[in-house]
Amino acid sequence: MVEEQQKKRGGGPQTEAGKAAVRRNAMKHGVLSQTPVIALVERAEDWERLRQGVFEFFELEGPLLESLGDRAATLIWRLYRVARFETESIRQYLDDVPEDWKSSMRLEGLPIPDKATKEQVQEMNRMLLSRLLPDDETMGKVMRYETKFHRYLLQTLYMIMVLKGLKRTGTGRFYGVADLDPPGIVRRAGPPTLSGG
């Protein structure tokens, strides 16, 4: 009976490659498939490439590891968005310079020339330079979001690494410190000691 039903439905993929291709179908169409892509601003292809890259890098399989992979990819995506927000904020601030310069001329009761003088161009350049960094409110917002997302990302990557056996569990406060021995680095045995005088 079961074999007859499988034959009617096609029975699913038979080869290992086919099984691997459909393994994540439930993830793509289920609850966790909600995309963090903002239409008209971000591209779904970029999101899928990033997500797939996280899954491939850590070789994530199974619901728990795949959900952690989705979380890591989403946090990286949001960090990119924070950087785009900062860049766009600065760009808009710079775009306002010509109109702001004209407004300052009006406030001083000066006529706005058809062609700016060398001194006026230098004044606009000074205005541009002073706006290369975002204002305090924008910078505060960027730093708050970036710090939160970065912390959550490190926690998620730590969990993935522990579950994959790439990192030993411990009480260390630095989630991102790998248990690897990079060349040229000599590690001391035991905890560091303070040398007394």
What key phrases describe this protein's structure?
197 residues; mainly alpha; 8 helices; 61% helix
Number of domains: 1
Task: Classify the oligomer.
Answer: single chain
Helix-strand sequence: HHHHHHHH
Proportion of strand residues:
under 5%
Which regions contain 5 or more consecutive residues with pLDDT less than 50? 26-33, 190-194
Total count of helical runs of at least 4 residues: 8
Helix fraction bin:
55-70%
Average pLDDT, to the nearest integer?
A: 78
Radius of gyration: 27 Å
Overview of the molecule:
It is a single chain. Mean pLDDT is 78; it is low at 26-33 and 190-194. 61% of the residues lie in helices and 0% in strands. By secondary structure, it is an all-alpha fold. It has helices at 2-9, 16-22, 25-29, 44-58, 63-95, 97-107, 118-130, 136-163. It has 8 helices and no strands. Helix 4 packs across helix 5 (63-95) and helix 5 runs antiparallel to helix 8. The longest helix has 33 residues, at 63-95. It has one domain (25-163).
